[in-house]
Structure to design on (228 residues):
């Protein structure tokens, strides 16, 4: 089945810096890649997603890039703010894993220092 | 609040007891999912329903676990003869029929087995 690896596990940046989180997936047939933000004690919330027919998607300070050939995708956060501090999860769906369920990475704890 | 609701938020139980959790999805979402999240890990898929039909179950869902969605509305997840390894956050999510896009997660039920 699908396997999603996520790096780094922790990331510390200064306010205003950029942050990049990378994920790789194993099933070349996967076709949907969302990113979730989870603050302590709260629910995972979708922040951005990308489908396999595009290579990049942006939403204000957040962008996701997808390289289907290399089977990896990345989350880019620019001009980071303390409120960006949270755990971020990538996920993959589709292909042999099945279209409905998401396979998540192990998460990246982002700490943005003022 | 018109999001996904889960009850209870926290449950502490003694090993060997049975527990039941409830999830109320967003009303127009006919797909409902259960995930389990342990500390420091991403959510892991357990099962999902389309309306009242349970369409897929993970191998993680042992015989002690059962999920139902009578009438295609709310869902319950029951764990019989709880074990300490069942301690986790149990997350429910729902989506529209179009697929896994835009999962909306509930706040989860945190189970502690003592």
């Amino acid at each position: 089945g699908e396997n999603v690896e996520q790096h780094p596990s922790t990331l510390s940046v200064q306010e205003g810096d950029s942050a990049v989180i990378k994920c790789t997936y194993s099933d070349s047939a996967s076709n949907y890649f969302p990113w979730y933000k989870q603050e302590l004690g709260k629910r995972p919330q979708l922040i951005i997603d990308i489908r396999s027919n595009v290579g990049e998607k942006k939403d204000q300070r957040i962008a996701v890039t997808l390289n289907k050939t290399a089977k990896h995708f990345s989350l880019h956060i620019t001009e980071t703010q303390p409120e960006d501090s949270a755990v971020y999860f990538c996920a993959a769906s589709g292909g042999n894993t099945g279209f409905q369920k998401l396979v998540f990475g192990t998460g990246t704890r982002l700490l943005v220092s003022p | 609040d018109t999001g996904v609701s889960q009850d209870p938020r926290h449950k502490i139980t003694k090993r060997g007891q049975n527990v039941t959790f409830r999830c109320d999805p967003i009303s127009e979402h006919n797909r409902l999912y259960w995930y389990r999240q342990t500390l420091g890990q991403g959510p892991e898929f357990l099962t999902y329903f389309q309306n009242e039909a349970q369409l897929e179950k993970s191998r993680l869902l042992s015989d002690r676990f059962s999920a139902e969605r009578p009438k295609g509305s709310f869902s319950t997840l029951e764990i019989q003869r709880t074990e300490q390894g069942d301690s986790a956050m149990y997350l429910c999510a729902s989506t529209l029929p179009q697929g896994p896009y835009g999962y909306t997660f509930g706040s989860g039920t945190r189970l502690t087995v003592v």
